[in-house]
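Most newcomers find our protein records easier to grasp once they have seen one. The structure tokens are whole numbers drawn from a learned vocabulary of backbone shapes. The record below serves as our worked example for the rest of this section.
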Amino acid sequence: MPHIRRNQHLGLAGLLVIAVVFAALQLTAVTGRASPDSKNYLSYALSLSGESRAEAGRRAIAYTCESGQHAPLDTIPWTSRKPAGETEAQCVRRLTDSVAYWTRNGNTSGMTAPFANQRFMAIFEARPGYPLFLVPFVTALGAVWGLWLAGLLVALAGAVCVLLTLRAAGASRRAGLAGAALYLALPTGTVAMNPLSDGLSLALGTVIVLGCTLLLRERPSDVSGAGAGRWAEGTGTRSGAGRWADAAGTRTGAALVVGGLALMFPVRYSQALLLAAALAGVFLVRAARLHRTGRRSTPVLRAAGLCALLTALVYAGAHLLSWPMGQDSAQDLLTHHYQRPDRPDPWPEFFAQERVFWWAWLKRQATYPFLPVLLALSAWASWKRRSAVLPVAIAAGAAGLLNQAGHPNLDQLPGHRLIVFVWLLPVLAVPLLLDRPRAGGSSALPAQVEKVGGGQRDGTVRVVQQVGEGA
């Protein structure tokens, strides 16, 4: 028992150290994180808290313009926003004049302040989840500290989910802590702290990733008889996170996937749609490969079916609510936020923009190859390790690429927020390299002959190793 408690304390202490260090670094930049879209979410949250639309707009303008005077510090990596080229007073005047102009030109309804035309602001009206999440923070602490604390909690929640995901996949405690640290140190942590819906969407994405990992793995609790007893002995030194992961079953996994996507829908429904579709697609491919090699594919097929059903439900929900869809996104890009006439057929020009963007993106990656190096390490981990988390991580990365492909805007080239789900692949795969290679999956091996009373019987001992799916 003392040994068990010591392991629990080590895991908890490690996570606490990571959280404290991250929070201390974020205190060096409590403000200075606002982007042009931050004022839309903040004004929506203030309206929900009871402020008038005009007062919500005024406070959102004050926050954005004050934030714009603070350049990101060197202690906060991955920020690409440039220092403002205008004074705070000039910024306030420009945005106030813009609100007055669009109010005169018909934008007189909705929860967000009229910073642009009504068609563009409808994009943010269709994301009520993040403003609703912000309400208690900005009500109690004001805009600056409320947004900062909300971002910190979102970032730490995502890191905890990453740790639980790796532990559920059979990784060691040090691999789980490494995954949590990577999540906070890479652009995933920076995006989570920014006052935008992307961070909350990413945190809910890690909940879905955890649920899918639970669905794909083989449960140690499937063991029975003498093998179960030996498994229980072997897991006695697992930390609290490890024991929770061992005890959680497919029902817990399904609940996390359904609940995570349900909460993600009002936060950023387009990313929820892409993530569910990517998971379904990757799981179907994985199930086909398992079937061809004669291995059990039922858990993967069930996960694929669940994600496919949720994809259809997310799409149907957005359609029934008349929220902006892919056609609107293409027109938004090509008409500079609907300030020019719509294109009769936007797709040829949109795909031409895709080619331009991705060529520029590849050249940037060649110049700053940090992401390619991490993706190469992820590929190496996928080759050397078998783990239930790997297909889930690949699907999350694909969802990030699809989201960026839906917004081929060269202005977004230096940033990470639209493609941020790609970074979940190294966050979940690279820590697996810290553990020694093991044979795939939970394998059933012949047991030693066991004496029972005066006789003997044969049993099966389940050796719990790096947990694989469908093995």
Remarks:
- Residues 36 and 119 are 17 Å apart (CA to CA).
